[in-house]
């Protein structure tokens, strides 16, 4: 049996805005297993980023409500609910045990400091090195680890002296500097050129193998999922509609939304019929559709879909779907 490192239960995030309450994610539940790459996929605005940020209390808007549980199982056998930790405790978890890589490397690095300083700082702040001197020495090793050529001189560069791909390598290096147990990568390659994207994905796979890090990958790109992930959760309008292994999702997608997503990408593994698009647009999350949130766009909609919210059901071992068809 795979061992969960995270158990997310009924995670809900609402934002109070002038226009109304945005129900960004609603009772989202999933497990992440130790050492796997778990992908969260779905269209823009479906709640991938909110979910990943909520895991470590990174939702900072003043009018937000966060409910549910995020159980984190440490290697020593202890378990904590990350949503219950104090600000100081969760700050220590972030960066040390659970690190983030965000989409835009330009925004993740401070233009005023050298890359060596920024990598060293991540270690000094969390006391994983004894002083700045050790931090700078390790920063060179980290640049080497993320395959930056000539790390001894690059460590003294400012971010503007590096290409986009190199910057994202530095961001990844900062992320892994404290050997985190979980790395949360939110669209880590979206802002980069296609050729550089492949290199960054290769690098992440290599680091994951080397350090047995668990990776949570946020992406809207099913091609990236096929290449990187072990398991996948498909999100639609703030709900998880399907969870399964990459094979289950690509070879036997059950939810009409998952089937639509796969049709939208060239996908040699899928056996499904190819239609061109999913008609319609993503719903407004202030007044989401009743019942199944996908029903207004669903080609197989039935009467019950408008009335009843479908729960996730296990259709084969490890393959869950929330759809009234099943
Ligand atoms: N601070 C906020 N206040 C109000 N609504 C918000 C806030 N942050 C996010 N949302 C809303 O929550 C929903 C989910 O957003 P989220 O960023 O998680 O989507 P996403 O799937 O990650 O999209 P993308 O791929 O574009 O990043 C969206 O409707 C978004 O507008």
From TrEMBL:
User: Which residues does the UniProt record annotate as the domain ABC transporter?
Assistant: 8-262
Q: Which GO terms of the cellular component aspect does the record hold?
A: plasma membrane
Please classify the protein's predominant subcellular localization into one broad category.
membrane
Entry membrane topology: Peripheral membrane protein
Keywords, ordered alphabetically:
ATP-binding, Cell membrane, Ion transport, Membrane, Nucleotide-binding, Translocase, Transport
Q: One biological-process term from Gene Ontology? A: peptide transport
Q: What class of enzyme is it?
A: translocase
- Name the chemical reaction catalysed here: Ni(2+)(out) + ATP + H2O = Ni(2+)(in) + ADP + phosphate + H(+)
EC annotation from Swiss-Prot or TrEMBL: 7.2.2.11
Entry's localization field = Cell membrane
> Mind listing the GO molecular function terms for this protein?
ABC-type nickel transporter activity; ATP binding; ATP hydrolysis activity
Q: How does it assemble?
A: The complex is composed of two ATP-binding proteins (NikD and NikE), two transmembrane proteins (NikB and NikC) and a solute-binding protein (NikA).
- Please give the name of this protein: Nickel import system ATP-binding protein NikD
